[in-house]
């Protein structure tokens, strides 16, 4: 992997040089991990004119949640506890003879920005912007492999839950059980806080589990994800509990399923982000569900669960091959409940079979 990380840093170095900076300071944790292989708590990466350095408050642990540093990268541990790695990195940039430093202004606090300026007053600070985030959008096959394994783990955890007795159990208990199963099957941990909604809570995006108990006839909506080697995937499904679904439940489910299918089919290289959103959204709009729809149809996944691209009405840009995204339309009827169906897919050309579905748990409306 050393060659991979070195190539990523070189691409960033070229972008910095084009912007007039020979050095860069990367502080956003996901960006540090992308370029260095690991992101210990508080660590920063200096892309130096002499050499690249990873500054840490303590030696890297090698634990799964922080990754393992690139072996070709020198790690500089701060000499005293409580020091600021970003300030130390700015000092190192000066020592290397740098006269300018590109920083992630969207991540640095004002206080930290001032501290860098005070320790290196002769250093011109420029904005690196979202340069690293842009590099992260297209994944290599190793990254996609990590997402694929994470999706398999999430599918396993969800499949086991569906085989257990659900009536009478609380949303909170089911969410905790799912997260335990993720770890049991090899995940670093959950990709985000697991959402379980029953009855009137079902279908709500980002619902935080409560002590409401599962009842016969409820919709049960579940959204979970696994983190594997730092990469995060997502899956969401909706079921009916204990009985044949009511007519309104079948109608609503079929509608959301049609919207989700339209969104998935729109995932082709070159498709505009907003067009993917429109494909799914217009199915719901045509059925009269214009109020309360989610702000977006999907988003990118990777080292973060919600990263570029954003599949939203006003989003700018077009899809590339090897970009993993979610497609997750949903409808929630206040007081009754709702449906959400969520998959993680990788954009592939038609010649390669079209979008690759990573999350494969059935989307049939099951009565559990």
TrEMBL record:
Domain Peptidase M24: 146-348
Chain intervals for the UniProt region annotation (Disordered): 190-211
One Pfam family in the UniProt entry: Peptidase_M24
Source organism, top-level taxon: Bacteria
Occurrences of domain Creatinase N-terminal (ranges): 8-138
Protein name per the record: M24 family metallopeptidase
